[in-house]
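Person: Show me a sequence?

Helper:
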Amino acid sequence: MADVTAEFESWRQRIVGRTISLAWRGYGSTIFLEFGELTPTHKSNGEAGHERGEVTIMLEWGWRLEGETTIVCGDGSEDAEIAAGLRQLIGLELKEAALAGRLPELALTFSSDLYVTSFWPCAGDPGWGILDNTMDGPNALQVKHGKLVLAN
């Protein structure tokens, strides 16, 4: 786990202290948390896409948004509950990011006592990634075969 922790630390430093500029839901129950200055994007058909932050955290299904004493919403919640939960995150500072579990899941602590936790419920790898949209080359940290890897 020492190698995983060392690899994660440089990425943790990129995101802790940043503020969520945009939180949005993609296909299915995948959510995206955009940090920093937003840049417009376009879909392949030329239509406007969601803006992208300097850093993006992506969580595929297998996540929940927690308050101090209850689950606010999660990947299986109704659309309106998820939308309301994501709106609560906008403007919050990321206070801490940590890895949890033997296979690295992502645990995020925000100001206002809100938490986002990934938990992949199926076979395969945990479904989360951190993307540094300011970098060229490998700009994403994700889990493959139970280990943290850099990808494009």
